[in-house]
């Protein structure tokens, strides 16, 4: 009994450590560079993410997956979620290029988190398709020689079709993908070997795909067996960060997100669903005054907060009408609120343009992913959206860095779709989500007297404002104006934007 009592605090400490994203001090927010090549990610860390204060990058899956010949060269995005092996080879690059990216990003204070897919292996529906690295699976017979896995390493063949039955969700095949049995020591061993290889290259952690479809006890055992992070980039004894895909929006299904918070962070899908609903006008934003657990969200230290991701921006994963880059004004307002409000570990999406929900990333006629080109105004070309390069978003990442550790103060609302609040004496934001009505109010900001540059309409540059400016009076009050006709529906000032 005494040994057990001594062990429990140690296990609890590990669980807490696995919720730490290991950001370099003074940084925040992960950006999902969806389908980017490793060489482009490395360059982006050095030229933009590091200088702008971003904390990390989530990559697309880096392990070998099916290359679907019937769809070549367009390659649907979900091709990456058809695992063939755990070899590090993808359309983003090979293992050497991956290692170079991780090193270069770590060197400028930007951490790397890999989207890992070990709930399953590729589906039998695609016949004789070959892996992107040339390995040949036999999914019809549940044989994956490049791992190797055989039929005895999988659950019985059955479809996931009853979300009121936890065993059905966790033991059957999601969309026909062959469902691995993670309770087997051999399967755990192969998964841990894969994660350890990524750790050896210097990654900070993992986004665990389809965690909802695996038993919490199996995942806890797998995470606990993964090596500490590389001492080349992290202090000795540092545990990997795990954030897990668990879609639990309604709270009425058998599998609950709270089952997974004891040993890692969970992707809080309710966050983007409810915040999108509010800024779309379906639930007045004045109710956001108690945003967080008061809205049924997970505890802040257990939540990955985001508006959209690669699934729900394509109407997958539930949550209703999710704001994306396609409705830019409302989307930027929702992202700005997320980055201004003290809740969760924040992640922003960086997309490519698409009209077809199956469409893969921009590519040439041979199926090679196009470079992410950078325009003179810092936006992206070649079909890449790069929301993280929109000034309203990266300036709010800087705002979040500035106000870190402060609480919400000086809340104001008009009882409807206009709100404002401060973050201690470090920042102040206002939002006008009321169509055809101007926001014109003199409000208490909590900031020292002076002139400040609005971080939404512009920036502070060379001692002047490229957008609007706000004058804070000696008593901390300021006249705040957001016209309904403006391109943006928000305003933000911080002590770092003071002239």
UniProtKB/TrEMBL annotation:
SMART domains: Aamy (SM00642), Aamy_C (SM00632). Residues 1-17 form the signal peptide. It is an enzyme of class 3 (hydrolase). GO terms for biological process: carbohydrate metabolic process. Residues 409-498 form the Alpha-amylase C-terminal domain. Residues 28-400 form the Glycosyl hydrolase family 13 catalytic domain. One of its GO terms (molecular function) is alpha-amylase activity. InterPro entries: A-amylase/branching_C, A-amylase_C, Alpha_amylase, GH, GH13_cat_dom, Glyco_hydro_b. Its cofactor is Ca(2+); chloride. It catalyses: Endohydrolysis of (1->4)-alpha-D-glucosidic linkages in polysaccharides containing three or more (1->4)-alpha-linked D-glucose units. The keyword NAD does not apply. Gene3D superfamilies: Glycosidases, Golgi alpha-mannosidase II. Keywords: Calcium, Carbohydrate metabolism, Chloride, Disulfide bond, Glycosidase, Hydrolase, Metal-binding, Signal. Its EC number is 3.2.1.1. Monomer. Belongs to the glycosyl hydrolase 13 family. This is Alpha-amylase.
